[in-house]
TrEMBL record:
The lineage of its organism: Bacteria, Pseudomonadati, Bacteroidota, Flavobacteriia, Flavobacteriales. Keywords: Pyruvate, Repeat, Transferase. This is Thiosulfate/3-mercaptopyruvate sulfurtransferase. It comes from the Bacteria. One of its GO terms (molecular function) is thiosulfate-cyanide sulfurtransferase activity. InterPro entries: Rhodanese-like_dom, Rhodanese-like_dom_sf, TST/MPST-like. Residues 18-135, 167-276 form the Rhodanese domain.
Amino acid sequence: MKNQSPIIEVAELFTISENPNLRIFDGRTGPNAKEEYLKKHLENSVFVDLNSDLAEIDNPKNGGRHPLPKFEDFIKTLGSLGIDKDSHVVIYDDKNGANAAARFWWMLRAVGQTNVQVLNGGLQFAENQNYPLSSGEDSYPETDYISGHQDWQLPQIWMDDVKLATQDSGSVIVDVRESQRYDGITELIDLIAGHIPNAKNFPFIDNLDDDGLFKSPELLKNLYSELFENYDQNKITFHCGSGVTACHSLLALDYAGFDIPNLYVGSWSEWSRNEV
């Protein structure tokens, strides 16, 4: 059975705001993310940190800039954040769900949490729709989160797999970064500009309309059906710079009714430190 929509509208969030099982998380990123959260966030939302909660940062050559944490450590993090299997988790960020909101969504789905959604339009749209705001730090009572699994349940591939895929005409590698980064014109984050050989560029921003909201499932289905034509589902891989914004496209695919394809978490940040 298909899970509920991975996208929730601000109007829907209003209607469930009193639900005792609701858990809202603020996934904004940047050098002052926590400080900005403390100044202003959606009411009852708890800050989640990309670098410490959603990644285990080490040497980017081994796993990229935002490798996944150990599965068991992430389960502990979920408990400390106050999430349990009955929680209805709603996540937003300040980048139209394109950053840590989508990554957190993918990770929750990958531990078996089904009732998890990303807020369409993120913080800015919710504020424009007069969703209640608060300041300071919110929290939820800790839980003892039990996944029922021992490892991530959504498909991933690793650098050696990507090497094989670059030489396989039956595989498609999708790079969701901005075209200028893909084309090697500019690179402000990683050491080297360019892209993985034979990768196709489909920027994540194309998942959104002019208002910064997700395009309709029908439009997304049409866009990606053309991209995926003639490719086996198991041979489709998405990546970005460090395995974060790629999740925005996986979110869009789920929204459009596709099965979620492979994620290469190491992405360009790992590949460019090893294979260029």
